[in-house]
Design a protein that fits this description.
Oligomer: single chain
Number of helices: 11
Largest sheet: 6 strands, parallel
CATH topology: Arginase, Chain A
Shape: globular
Pathway: Nitrogen metabolism; urea cycle; L-ornithine and urea from L-arginine: step 1/1
Distance between the termini: 53 Å
InterPro entries: Arginase, Ureohydrolase, Ureohydrolase_dom_sf, Ureohydrolase_Mn_BS
Protein name: Arginase
Structural class: alpha/beta
Number of strands: 6
GO molecular function: arginase activity
Cofactor: Mn(2+)
Strand content: 5-15%
Order of helices and strands: HHHEHEHHEHEHHEHEH
Number of domains: 1
CATH architecture: 3-Layer(aba) Sandwich
Length: 288
């Protein structure tokens, strides 16, 4: 129901009011993977995960080569295994590196072997970064991976020990809420955007509802207290728009059954509006 909640909250109207042309491709369907064996018995709903990953991978690879900005609506953050890997495949065909900004309370850097919970939304970032053990997901090894050093996780406040070791070993950028408190979110984001620009990179943004503090965004099943504020989140979106670097976007983990009169869906739509150019007031440059 997440994608339909975004539609009801006026996502298309918001983007069109900003002058953008919007095409809704509708809800996709997972590929039929048959009786696919799980590589680890602890994994939950593995055939469904593989089916969705294969469908989204193909769709994102197709859309990513076009001069558009795909917005992928979900749903579980596991969907990013397909969207990001497909965008990476498209970026490789275009001869440009893909960078990923992961806005999330969690790092989602488990492999199928390290996850204890079996929750597959904890694995997509490890998959797209080429960690081992994921061949069953697409049916073949992932050919176009994301360089872990091109990944920046911002707003994290819940990391398991196994993930922490893997993040350090692979050089992933991790900025937790303490760093945001100490240095400010703009000071942490700006150097990453400068690296993307210097590399002529494409930038995929994956925005999880739990990046936000649950007081302002309750409609998520994995709430973690102490998330980003309304203004911090909008500042990130405004800086992303100003950079002109964003080439694709995930909006994930919206569970409308946990929402309060639709306020989380509306906030996510407002944040998307900021990313696509909504301003309170244009600030002209003056010369003196």
């Amino acid at each position: 129901m997440g994608p339909d909640a975004y539609r009801t909250a006026g996502l298309a109207d918001t983007l069109e009011d900003l002058g953008h042309s919007v095409t809704d491709h509708g809800n996709l369907k997972p590929a039929d993977v048959g009786d696919l064996a799980s590589p680890n018995p602890v994994l939950k709903n593995f055939p469904a995960y593989a089916g969705w990953t294969r469908t989204l991978h193909q769709k994102a690879a197709q859309l990513g080569e076009n001069p558009i900005v795909p917005v992928y609506l979900g749903g579980d953050h596991a969907m990013a295994a397909g969207t990001v890997s497909g965008q990476a495949r498209a970026a490789a065909r275009l001869g440009r590196p893909l960078f990923v900004l992961w806005l999330d309370a969690h790092s989602d850097f488990h492999t199928f072997d390290t996850t204890a919970s079996g929750n597959l939304h904890g694995t997509p970032l490890a998959f797209v970064c080429g960690l081992p053990g994921f061949d069953a997901l697409l049916g073949d090894p992932l050919k176009h991976t994301v360089d872990p050093k091109n990944v920046e996780i911002l707003g994290v406040r819940s990391i398991d020990d196994a993930e922490r070791r893997q993040l350090l070993d692979h050089g992933v950028g991790v900025r937790d809420m303490r760093q945001i408190d100490e240095d400010g979110i703009a000071g942490l984001l700006r150097p990453f955007l400068n690296r993307v620009k210097a590399a002529n990179g494409l930038l995929h943004v994956s925005l999880d509802v739990d990046f936000l503090d649950p007081d302002i965004a309750p409609a998520v099943g994995t709430t973690v207290p102490g998330g980003t504020t309304f203004r911090e989140a909008h500042l990130v979106m405004e800086m992303l728009h100003d950079s002109g670097l964003v080439s694709s976007l995930d909006l994930v983990e919206l569970n409308p059954f946990l929402d309060e009169r639709g306020k989380t869906a509306r906030l996510m739509v407002e944040l998307t509006g900021s990313l696509f150019g909504r301003r309170v007031f244009d600030r002209p440059t003056r010369s003196f």
